[in-house]
Design goal:
globular; 5-stranded antiparallel beta sheet; single chain; 2 helices; 28% strand; alpha+beta
Length: 89
């Protein structure tokens, strides 16, 4: 099971329970998929359109503390928190 922790501009942000390091989240957007590092918002694998990649990176850096907290919860198999999207400030 991979809960959606955020959604904005058609971009789904998900996190797996008990996932592998480094800390990251999964992005789905219009048929594209990518793993994105929580540390700096860079795409670790997969591909996103440039505009979506930029939005995700900015969102990641803005919500880093919540993402790290969710990563910790996911490793401990605890429920994840929703994180506001880039479109609902």
């Amino acid at each position: 099971c991979m809960p959606v922790i955020s959604y904005f501009f058609g971009i789904y942000i998900r996190m797996y329970f008990d996932d592998h390091a480094p800390p990251h989240f999964h992005v789905e957007y219009q048929g594209h998929e990518a793993f994105v590092a929580i540390s700096d918002g860079t795409v670790l694998s997969g591909k996103l359109p440039k505009k979506a990649e930029k939005l995700v990176r900015e969102w990641c850096l803005e919500h880093q503390p919540e993402l790290i907290e969710n990563w910790t919860r996911a490793i401990a198999l605890e429920p994840l928190q929703r994180i506001p999207g880039a479109d609902n400030d």
